[in-house]
Design brief:
It contains 15 helices and eleven strands. The protein is an alpha+beta fold. The chain has a single domain, classed as Cytochrome p450 (Orthogonal Bundle). Strands 1-2-7-4 form a four-stranded mixed beta sheet, sandwiched between helices. A three-stranded antiparallel beta sheet has the order 3-11-8. Strands 5-6 form a two-stranded antiparallel ribbon.
Length: about 400
Protein backbone atom coordinates (compact mmCIF):
# COMPACT_ATOMS: atom_id res chain seq x y z
CA UNK A 1 0.00 0.00 0.00
CA UNK A 2 1.34 3.45 -0.87
CA UNK A 3 0.80 5.98 1.89
CA UNK A 4 0.33 9.66 1.22
CA UNK A 5 3.10 12.00 2.27
CA UNK A 6 2.88 12.98 5.93
CA UNK A 7 5.11 15.01 8.21
CA UNK A 8 5.86 12.39 10.86
CA UNK A 9 5.82 8.60 10.88
CA UNK A 10 2.66 7.10 12.26
CA UNK A 11 2.76 3.95 14.33
CA UNK A 12 0.03 1.37 13.59
CA UNK A 13 -1.33 1.70 17.13
CA UNK A 14 -2.02 5.39 16.50
CA UNK A 15 -4.48 4.36 13.81
CA UNK A 16 -6.33 1.90 16.04
CA UNK A 17 -9.91 3.22 16.38
CA UNK A 18 -10.41 1.08 19.48
CA UNK A 19 -7.83 2.89 21.62
CA UNK A 20 -9.53 4.67 24.58
CA UNK A 21 -8.44 8.10 23.33
CA UNK A 22 -9.78 7.33 19.85
CA UNK A 23 -13.10 6.14 21.23
CA UNK A 24 -13.47 9.31 23.29
CA UNK A 25 -12.69 11.57 20.32
CA UNK A 26 -12.55 9.54 17.12
CA UNK A 27 -12.43 12.36 14.58
CA UNK A 28 -8.68 13.16 14.70
CA UNK A 29 -7.98 9.44 14.20
CA UNK A 30 -10.44 9.29 11.32
CA UNK A 31 -8.70 12.26 9.68
CA UNK A 32 -5.32 10.54 9.96
CA UNK A 33 -6.75 7.34 8.55
CA UNK A 34 -8.11 9.20 5.54
CA UNK A 35 -4.65 10.72 5.00
CA UNK A 36 -3.14 7.23 4.78
CA UNK A 37 -5.14 6.17 1.76
CA UNK A 38 -8.41 4.53 0.75
CA UNK A 39 -7.78 1.41 2.85
CA UNK A 40 -5.58 1.13 5.94
CA UNK A 41 -4.42 -2.15 7.46
CA UNK A 42 -4.10 -2.16 11.27
CA UNK A 43 -1.85 -5.14 12.01
CA UNK A 44 -2.48 -5.30 15.75
CA UNK A 45 -6.15 -5.85 15.03
CA UNK A 46 -5.80 -7.69 11.71
CA UNK A 47 -8.47 -5.45 10.21
CA UNK A 48 -8.64 -3.37 7.04
CA UNK A 49 -10.27 0.02 7.64
CA UNK A 50 -12.13 2.01 5.00
CA UNK A 51 -12.34 5.67 6.14
CA UNK A 52 -13.28 7.73 3.05
CA UNK A 53 -16.80 8.50 1.89
CA UNK A 54 -16.42 7.30 -1.71
CA UNK A 55 -14.82 4.01 -0.70
CA UNK A 56 -17.31 3.39 2.12
CA UNK A 57 -20.21 3.78 -0.32
CA UNK A 58 -18.48 1.45 -2.79
CA UNK A 59 -17.95 -1.26 -0.16
CA UNK A 60 -21.53 -1.05 1.07
CA UNK A 61 -22.89 -1.31 -2.48
CA UNK A 62 -20.52 -4.08 -3.62
CA UNK A 63 -22.22 -6.95 -1.82
CA UNK A 64 -20.61 -9.60 -4.04
CA UNK A 65 -17.08 -8.50 -3.11
CA UNK A 66 -17.76 -7.48 0.49
CA UNK A 67 -20.16 -9.95 2.04
CA UNK A 68 -22.32 -9.62 5.15
CA UNK A 69 -23.08 -13.31 5.58
CA UNK A 70 -19.77 -13.94 7.35
CA UNK A 71 -20.67 -11.46 10.08
CA UNK A 72 -20.77 -7.68 10.39
CA UNK A 73 -19.06 -7.27 13.76
CA UNK A 74 -15.45 -7.13 14.92
CA UNK A 75 -15.66 -10.65 16.30
CA UNK A 76 -16.63 -12.45 13.11
CA UNK A 77 -16.13 -15.86 14.73
CA UNK A 78 -19.17 -15.21 16.88
CA UNK A 79 -20.14 -17.14 19.97
CA UNK A 80 -23.74 -16.86 18.82
CA UNK A 81 -25.16 -19.97 17.25
CA UNK A 82 -27.63 -17.90 15.22
CA UNK A 83 -27.34 -14.81 13.02
CA UNK A 84 -29.38 -11.64 12.75
CA UNK A 85 -31.12 -12.37 9.44
CA UNK A 86 -31.51 -8.82 8.13
CA UNK A 87 -27.92 -7.63 8.49
CA UNK A 88 -25.92 -10.87 8.48
CA UNK A 89 -27.10 -12.27 5.17
CA UNK A 90 -26.42 -11.93 1.45
CA UNK A 91 -28.62 -12.43 -1.62
CA UNK A 92 -30.71 -14.40 -2.31
CA UNK A 93 -31.60 -14.98 1.37
CA UNK A 94 -31.27 -11.30 2.18
CA UNK A 95 -33.68 -10.35 -0.61
CA UNK A 96 -36.27 -12.84 0.60
CA UNK A 97 -36.06 -11.62 4.20
CA UNK A 98 -36.03 -7.95 3.31
CA UNK A 99 -39.00 -8.20 0.95
CA UNK A 100 -41.04 -9.94 3.62
CA UNK A 101 -40.60 -6.92 5.93
CA UNK A 102 -40.22 -3.91 3.65
CA UNK A 103 -43.96 -3.16 3.27
CA UNK A 104 -44.25 -2.62 7.03
CA UNK A 105 -41.75 0.25 6.77
CA UNK A 106 -43.29 2.03 3.79
CA UNK A 107 -44.82 5.49 4.05
CA UNK A 108 -48.40 4.58 5.01
CA UNK A 109 -47.60 2.15 7.86
CA UNK A 110 -45.03 4.55 9.34
CA UNK A 111 -47.41 7.51 8.98
CA UNK A 112 -50.01 5.50 10.88
CA UNK A 113 -47.66 5.59 13.87
CA UNK A 114 -47.21 9.38 13.70
CA UNK A 115 -50.01 10.41 16.12
CA UNK A 116 -48.69 8.17 18.90
CA UNK A 117 -45.06 9.07 18.20
CA UNK A 118 -45.86 12.78 18.33
CA UNK A 119 -47.90 12.29 21.50
CA UNK A 120 -44.95 10.52 23.12
CA UNK A 121 -42.62 13.34 22.07
CA UNK A 122 -45.01 15.90 23.58
CA UNK A 123 -45.12 14.02 26.89
CA UNK A 124 -41.34 13.76 27.05
CA UNK A 125 -40.85 17.43 26.17
CA UNK A 126 -43.41 18.46 28.80
CA UNK A 127 -41.45 16.45 31.38
CA UNK A 128 -38.25 18.15 30.27
CA UNK A 129 -39.87 21.58 30.72
CA UNK A 130 -40.88 20.70 34.26
CA UNK A 131 -37.50 19.41 35.39
CA UNK A 132 -35.10 22.22 34.66
CA UNK A 133 -32.08 19.96 35.13
CA UNK A 134 -32.06 16.34 33.99
CA UNK A 135 -30.06 13.52 32.45
CA UNK A 136 -30.93 13.68 28.75
CA UNK A 137 -30.14 9.97 28.36
CA UNK A 138 -32.73 8.93 30.94
CA UNK A 139 -35.35 11.57 30.14
CA UNK A 140 -35.14 11.86 26.33
CA UNK A 141 -32.82 9.35 24.64
CA UNK A 142 -34.24 6.19 26.23
CA UNK A 143 -38.01 6.75 26.50
CA UNK A 144 -38.60 7.96 22.93
CA UNK A 145 -37.29 4.85 21.08
CA UNK A 146 -38.66 2.62 23.83
CA UNK A 147 -42.18 3.85 23.08
CA UNK A 148 -41.66 3.86 19.31
CA UNK A 149 -40.49 0.26 19.24
CA UNK A 150 -43.35 -0.79 21.49
CA UNK A 151 -45.77 0.75 18.99
CA UNK A 152 -44.00 -0.87 16.04
CA UNK A 153 -43.28 -4.36 17.32
CA UNK A 154 -45.94 -4.80 19.99
CA UNK A 155 -43.31 -5.75 22.57
CA UNK A 156 -43.50 -4.24 26.06
CA UNK A 157 -40.17 -4.87 27.86
CA UNK A 158 -39.87 -5.62 31.59
CA UNK A 159 -38.44 -2.13 32.11
CA UNK A 160 -36.85 0.67 30.11
CA UNK A 161 -33.47 0.09 31.76
CA UNK A 162 -33.56 -3.64 31.08
CA UNK A 163 -34.29 -3.00 27.42
CA UNK A 164 -31.44 -0.47 27.24
CA UNK A 165 -29.04 -3.07 28.65
CA UNK A 166 -30.25 -5.77 26.26
CA UNK A 167 -29.96 -3.44 23.27
CA UNK A 168 -26.48 -2.32 24.32
CA UNK A 169 -25.34 -5.94 24.54
CA UNK A 170 -26.22 -6.64 20.91
CA UNK A 171 -23.18 -4.74 19.65
CA UNK A 172 -20.94 -4.92 22.71
CA UNK A 173 -20.95 -8.70 22.87
CA UNK A 174 -18.75 -8.85 19.77
CA UNK A 175 -16.50 -5.84 20.28
CA UNK A 176 -12.82 -6.17 21.26
CA UNK A 177 -13.82 -5.43 24.85
CA UNK A 178 -16.87 -7.71 24.79
CA UNK A 179 -17.35 -9.98 27.79
CA UNK A 180 -19.34 -13.15 28.55
CA UNK A 181 -21.74 -10.93 30.50
CA UNK A 182 -22.87 -9.29 27.26
CA UNK A 183 -23.68 -12.71 25.80
CA UNK A 184 -25.57 -13.54 28.98
CA UNK A 185 -27.67 -10.41 28.48
CA UNK A 186 -28.43 -11.43 24.89
CA UNK A 187 -29.51 -14.88 26.04
CA UNK A 188 -31.66 -13.29 28.72
CA UNK A 189 -33.36 -11.06 26.12
CA UNK A 190 -34.09 -13.96 23.76
CA UNK A 191 -35.37 -16.14 26.61
CA UNK A 192 -37.71 -13.34 27.69
CA UNK A 193 -39.00 -12.96 24.14
CA UNK A 194 -39.83 -16.65 23.90
CA UNK A 195 -41.25 -17.03 27.40
CA UNK A 196 -43.12 -13.74 27.86
CA UNK A 197 -42.69 -11.05 25.24
CA UNK A 198 -44.18 -12.71 22.17
CA UNK A 199 -47.19 -14.13 24.00
CA UNK A 200 -48.15 -10.67 25.29
CA UNK A 201 -48.04 -8.92 21.91
CA UNK A 202 -51.34 -7.48 20.62
CA UNK A 203 -53.13 -9.08 17.70
CA UNK A 204 -52.08 -6.51 15.09
CA UNK A 205 -48.43 -5.48 15.21
CA UNK A 206 -45.18 -6.13 13.39
CA UNK A 207 -44.21 -8.73 15.97
CA UNK A 208 -47.29 -10.82 15.17
CA UNK A 209 -46.76 -10.31 11.45
CA UNK A 210 -43.24 -11.73 11.78
CA UNK A 211 -43.85 -14.55 14.24
CA UNK A 212 -47.28 -15.77 13.09
CA UNK A 213 -47.42 -14.83 9.40
CA UNK A 214 -43.75 -14.96 8.40
CA UNK A 215 -43.78 -11.35 7.22
CA UNK A 216 -46.05 -9.67 4.70
CA UNK A 217 -45.55 -12.45 2.15
CA UNK A 218 -45.12 -15.38 4.53
CA UNK A 219 -41.58 -16.15 3.38
CA UNK A 220 -39.80 -16.01 6.72
CA UNK A 221 -38.84 -19.56 7.64
CA UNK A 222 -41.27 -21.07 10.17
CA UNK A 223 -38.67 -23.68 11.13
CA UNK A 224 -35.68 -22.70 13.22
CA UNK A 225 -34.89 -19.28 14.70
CA UNK A 226 -35.21 -17.00 11.64
CA UNK A 227 -38.46 -15.36 12.71
CA UNK A 228 -37.35 -14.92 16.32
CA UNK A 229 -33.96 -13.45 15.39
CA UNK A 230 -35.55 -11.12 12.84
CA UNK A 231 -37.93 -9.73 15.44
CA UNK A 232 -35.17 -9.46 18.05
CA UNK A 233 -32.85 -7.57 15.73
CA UNK A 234 -35.49 -5.03 14.63
CA UNK A 235 -36.59 -4.49 18.22
CA UNK A 236 -33.24 -4.02 19.91
CA UNK A 237 -31.46 -2.23 17.07
CA UNK A 238 -34.19 0.41 17.06
CA UNK A 239 -33.48 1.23 20.70
CA UNK A 240 -29.72 1.78 20.71
CA UNK A 241 -29.41 3.63 17.40
CA UNK A 242 -32.22 6.15 17.88
CA UNK A 243 -31.31 6.67 21.51
CA UNK A 244 -27.77 7.52 20.43
CA UNK A 245 -29.10 9.94 17.82
CA UNK A 246 -31.21 11.83 20.36
CA UNK A 247 -28.49 12.09 23.00
CA UNK A 248 -25.89 13.15 20.45
CA UNK A 249 -28.32 15.74 19.08
CA UNK A 250 -28.83 17.49 22.41
CA UNK A 251 -25.08 17.51 23.02
CA UNK A 252 -24.46 18.94 19.55
CA UNK A 253 -26.90 21.78 20.19
CA UNK A 254 -25.21 22.55 23.50
CA UNK A 255 -21.94 22.91 21.60
CA UNK A 256 -23.61 24.88 18.78
CA UNK A 257 -26.24 27.15 20.38
CA UNK A 258 -26.47 29.22 17.20
CA UNK A 259 -27.80 26.17 15.38
CA UNK A 260 -30.45 25.59 18.04
CA UNK A 261 -31.50 29.23 17.80
CA UNK A 262 -31.72 28.89 14.03
CA UNK A 263 -33.78 25.71 14.31
CA UNK A 264 -36.22 27.36 16.70
CA UNK A 265 -36.71 30.20 14.24
CA UNK A 266 -36.90 27.87 11.22
CA UNK A 267 -38.88 24.73 12.11
CA UNK A 268 -39.00 23.94 8.39
CA UNK A 269 -35.33 22.97 8.77
CA UNK A 270 -36.10 20.12 11.18
CA UNK A 271 -36.01 17.30 8.58
CA UNK A 272 -32.65 18.51 7.24
CA UNK A 273 -31.39 19.03 10.79
CA UNK A 274 -32.08 15.37 11.54
CA UNK A 275 -29.88 14.35 8.62
CA UNK A 276 -27.15 16.81 9.58
CA UNK A 277 -27.16 15.48 13.14
CA UNK A 278 -26.84 11.94 11.80
CA UNK A 279 -23.92 13.05 9.64
CA UNK A 280 -22.24 15.02 12.41
CA UNK A 281 -22.39 12.18 14.96
CA UNK A 282 -23.18 8.88 13.26
CA UNK A 283 -24.70 6.56 15.91
CA UNK A 284 -22.80 3.55 14.55
CA UNK A 285 -19.04 3.99 14.35
CA UNK A 286 -18.32 0.93 12.23
CA UNK A 287 -19.77 -2.15 10.58
CA UNK A 288 -17.76 -4.96 9.04
CA UNK A 289 -17.78 -6.82 5.77
CA UNK A 290 -15.62 -9.78 4.69
CA UNK A 291 -13.87 -10.75 1.49
CA UNK A 292 -13.93 -14.25 0.03
CA UNK A 293 -11.54 -13.37 -2.79
CA UNK A 294 -8.97 -10.65 -3.43
CA UNK A 295 -10.55 -7.24 -3.99
CA UNK A 296 -9.05 -4.01 -5.32
CA UNK A 297 -10.36 -0.90 -3.59
CA UNK A 298 -8.89 2.43 -4.63
CA UNK A 299 -5.72 0.79 -5.86
CA UNK A 300 -5.22 -1.23 -2.66
CA UNK A 301 -5.43 -5.03 -2.82
CA UNK A 302 -7.41 -6.49 0.06
CA UNK A 303 -6.75 -10.23 0.46
CA UNK A 304 -9.32 -12.99 0.62
CA UNK A 305 -10.60 -13.67 4.10
CA UNK A 306 -10.09 -10.09 5.24
CA UNK A 307 -12.16 -8.35 7.89
CA UNK A 308 -13.03 -4.94 6.47
CA UNK A 309 -14.19 -2.20 8.83
CA UNK A 310 -16.42 0.40 7.19
CA UNK A 311 -16.07 3.59 9.24
CA UNK A 312 -19.41 5.39 9.06
CA UNK A 313 -18.29 8.18 11.38
CA UNK A 314 -15.21 8.87 9.27
CA UNK A 315 -17.07 8.85 5.95
CA UNK A 316 -19.53 11.37 7.35
CA UNK A 317 -16.67 13.74 8.19
CA UNK A 318 -14.85 13.37 4.87
CA UNK A 319 -14.17 16.91 3.56
CA UNK A 320 -14.24 15.63 -0.02
CA UNK A 321 -17.95 15.02 0.43
CA UNK A 322 -18.87 17.50 3.18
CA UNK A 323 -17.11 20.90 3.19
CA UNK A 324 -16.13 21.99 6.71
CA UNK A 325 -17.20 18.59 8.01
CA UNK A 326 -16.45 19.30 11.67
CA UNK A 327 -19.01 22.12 11.73
CA UNK A 328 -22.66 21.41 12.50
CA UNK A 329 -24.72 23.14 9.82
CA UNK A 330 -28.44 22.37 9.79
CA UNK A 331 -28.76 24.12 6.41
CA UNK A 332 -26.17 21.84 4.77
CA UNK A 333 -27.44 21.12 1.27
CA UNK A 334 -26.12 17.55 0.97
CA UNK A 335 -26.67 16.45 4.57
CA UNK A 336 -28.95 13.63 3.42
CA UNK A 337 -26.08 11.95 1.56
CA UNK A 338 -24.64 10.78 4.91
CA UNK A 339 -24.11 7.07 5.44
CA UNK A 340 -25.28 6.86 9.06
CA UNK A 341 -28.03 4.49 7.91
CA UNK A 342 -25.72 2.66 5.51
CA UNK A 343 -26.56 2.39 1.82
CA UNK A 344 -27.27 -0.29 -0.76
CA UNK A 345 -28.87 -3.62 0.10
CA UNK A 346 -28.46 -3.13 3.83
CA UNK A 347 -29.79 0.42 4.07
CA UNK A 348 -31.37 0.58 7.52
CA UNK A 349 -34.90 -0.78 7.27
CA UNK A 350 -36.09 1.26 10.25
CA UNK A 351 -34.71 4.61 9.14
CA UNK A 352 -38.16 6.11 8.31
CA UNK A 353 -39.25 5.49 11.90
CA UNK A 354 -35.99 6.87 13.32
CA UNK A 355 -36.44 10.06 11.27
CA UNK A 356 -40.02 10.40 12.50
CA UNK A 357 -38.97 9.99 16.14
CA UNK A 358 -36.16 12.52 15.89
CA UNK A 359 -38.25 15.07 14.00
CA UNK A 360 -41.13 14.76 16.47
CA UNK A 361 -38.77 15.19 19.41
CA UNK A 362 -37.06 18.24 17.92
CA UNK A 363 -40.41 19.79 17.03
CA UNK A 364 -41.63 19.55 20.61
CA UNK A 365 -38.36 20.66 22.19
CA UNK A 366 -37.93 23.72 19.97
CA UNK A 367 -41.27 25.09 21.20
CA UNK A 368 -40.36 24.64 24.86
CA UNK A 369 -36.59 25.10 25.16
CA UNK A 370 -34.78 28.36 24.51
CA UNK A 371 -31.42 26.68 24.96
CA UNK A 372 -29.66 23.72 26.55
CA UNK A 373 -26.71 24.13 28.90
CA UNK A 374 -24.40 21.69 30.62
CA UNK A 375 -25.35 20.78 34.17
CA UNK A 376 -22.38 18.49 34.73
CA UNK A 377 -19.74 16.50 32.92
CA UNK A 378 -21.12 14.30 30.13
CA UNK A 379 -20.07 10.65 30.20
CA UNK A 380 -19.59 8.75 26.95
CA UNK A 381 -20.78 5.16 26.94
CA UNK A 382 -18.00 2.54 26.73
CA UNK A 383 -19.53 0.95 23.62
CA UNK A 384 -16.91 0.49 20.92
CA UNK A 385 -19.56 0.30 18.18
CA UNK A 386 -22.22 2.87 19.05
CA UNK A 387 -21.26 6.48 19.76
CA UNK A 388 -23.63 7.51 22.51
CA UNK A 389 -23.77 8.84 26.05
CA UNK A 390 -24.05 6.96 29.31
CA UNK A 391 -25.01 10.21 31.05
CA UNK A 392 -25.68 13.70 29.72
CA UNK A 393 -26.50 16.18 32.53
CA UNK A 394 -28.41 19.09 31.02
CA UNK A 395 -29.95 22.34 32.19
CA UNK A 396 -32.92 23.56 30.18
CA UNK A 397 -33.69 27.26 29.80
CA UNK A 398 -37.43 27.44 29.01
CA UNK A 399 -38.70 29.35 26.01
CA UNK A 400 -40.72 32.44 26.79
CA UNK A 401 -44.40 31.69 26.79
CA UNK A 402 -43.84 27.92 26.65
CA UNK A 403 -46.54 25.88 28.30
Amino acid sequence: MTNLSIQAPIQPSELDPYRPAALADPYPVYARLREQGPVVFVPGRDIWLVPGYTEVVKVLRSHDDFVSGDGVTYAAATLRTERYPLIESDPPDHNRIRRSLQPAFMKDPIEALRPEIEAAAARIAAEVAGLGEFDAVQVVAQPMPDRAMQLLTGLTPPSRQTLAEWSDAVSRAEEPAGTPHHFELLTEALNWLVAEGIAAMPAHCLGRLIMSDGGTDGRLDPEGPERLMTLASIWMAGIDSTGALLGNAIDAFIEHPDQWELLRSRPDLIPNAVDELLRYEAPFRVFYRHTRAEVDLGGVTIPAGASVGVLYGSANRDPRQFPEPDRLDITRENARTHVAFGTGLHLCLGQPLARLEAAAMLTELTTRVERFERAGEPVRDPSQTVRKFAALPVRMIPAKGAA
